[in-house]
Specification:
CATH superfamily: Glutaredoxin
Strand order of the largest sheet: 2-1-5-4-3-6-7
Distance between the termini: 26 Å
Strand content: 15-25%
CATH class: Alpha Beta
CATH architecture: 3-Layer(aba) Sandwich
Length: 150
Amino acid sequence: MLAPGQSAPDFILLDHASSATSLGSLLQPGPLILYFYPADFTPVCTREACLIRDAYAELNAAGLTVAGVSPDTPQAHALFRAKHGLNYPLLSDPEKEVIGAYGVRGPLGIGVRRATFLIDTRGLIVSAVLADLRLSRHEAFVRAAIAQVS
C-alpha cells in the first residue's frame, strides 16, 4: 500500500455515469478522500459507502472531495448510488490497474483491500488507512481528515 509522502498515481476511470474522471479533476476543488472497496451491494461496503454519504456535508464544508473505487461496472455503480442515495462519484476499475497502482489488491491479486487515502492538491498522499473489516478505522480516518483540513 502506498504510504504518506508518496505521489498518488494518476488515473482516468469511468464513473457511475460512464464519464471519464481523472485524479487531477478530483483534486481541482481541493484535497481528496479516495477510498477503495471490494464490491457494490455487499454488507460492509454498503455500510462504508453510507458512512461517507452521511459525512458528506462535513467533508464538503471542510473543502474535501470524495470518490470511491471498486472493480464494479459503471452500471452497477449507478444502481448502487441510486439505491443508497450516494452523493459522490464511484469509479470503475474492472482491470484493477489503479487498485494495483495504489497497492490495495487482495492476497494473490484476488479481490480488493479496503483502504482510504487523503490526497492533497499537489497529488501527495497525506495519510492512509488499511482495514479490511474494521469500518470504525475508516470512519475515524475520515473524521481526522476533516479535522486536519478544517
